[in-house]
Every structure is written in structure tokens, then in C-alpha cells.
Amino acid sequence: MVELVRVALNKTLGPILLLVGVGLILFVVYVAYNEYLSASNILISKTLQTSLVEILSLFSIIAVKAIFLSFIVWGGSLLLSNGIKLLHGEKEEKGEKR
């Protein structure tokens, strides 16, 4: 009885986790591509100090966005991995019962 419930739960949770993981990764690709398209040019000003401040502020913004996107990809890959494991385990159980 418990085994049947576990198999049924794996059968429903596996594809859900798989789709959510792929969706998160595709979301990150979409956001990163939009950021790439909307990137602004760095204007070099006459003084070195002003140019350096502009470059460092732009770099800090990019670094923060990249860190957040990398955490989202990491979570998506964990969900994707667990979804594949659940689907793979379901197929192994079907093979053992035959």
C-alpha cells in the first residue's frame, strides 16, 4: 500500500520538478539575454576618477545580478536533477516488477 502511494507520488512529482527546473533555467536565460540587449555603453569622461567610478558602479550592479541569477540556476538544476531521479527511479521500479 505504502509502495503504491510512493510510486504514484513519484509519478506526479517527477515531471513537475523537471518542468519547474527547466522553467527556472529558461527564465534565467531570458533575463540574462534581455540584460545583454539593454546594456548601456560606458562613456569615458575626461577625468580618470569619474571614468573609474562609472565602471566600478556598473560592474557592481552586474555582479549582484549575476550572483542572483546563479542562485536561481543552482536551484533550478537541483529541481531538475531531483525530477530526473524520480522519473528514473519510477522506470527502474517498472522494470523490476516485470
Q: In percent terms, what proportion of residues is strand?
A: under 5%
Q: Any low-confidence stretches, pLDDT <50, length ≥5?
A: none
Number of helices: 2
In total, the number of domains comes to 1
Largest sheet, in brief, is: none
Explain what you see.
- With 98 residues, the chain is an all-alpha fold.
- The protein has one domain (2-97).
- The protein has two helices and no strands.
- The protein has helices at 2-37, 48-97.
- The longest helix has 50 residues, at 48-97.
- The two termini are 18 Å apart.
- 5% of the residues are buried.
- The model has no long low-confidence stretch (mean pLDDT 86).
Characteristics:
98 residues, 0% strand, rod-shaped, mainly alpha
Write the layout of secondary structure elements.
Elements: H1 2-37, H2 48-97
Task: Quickly describe the structure.
This protein has helices at 2-37, 48-97.
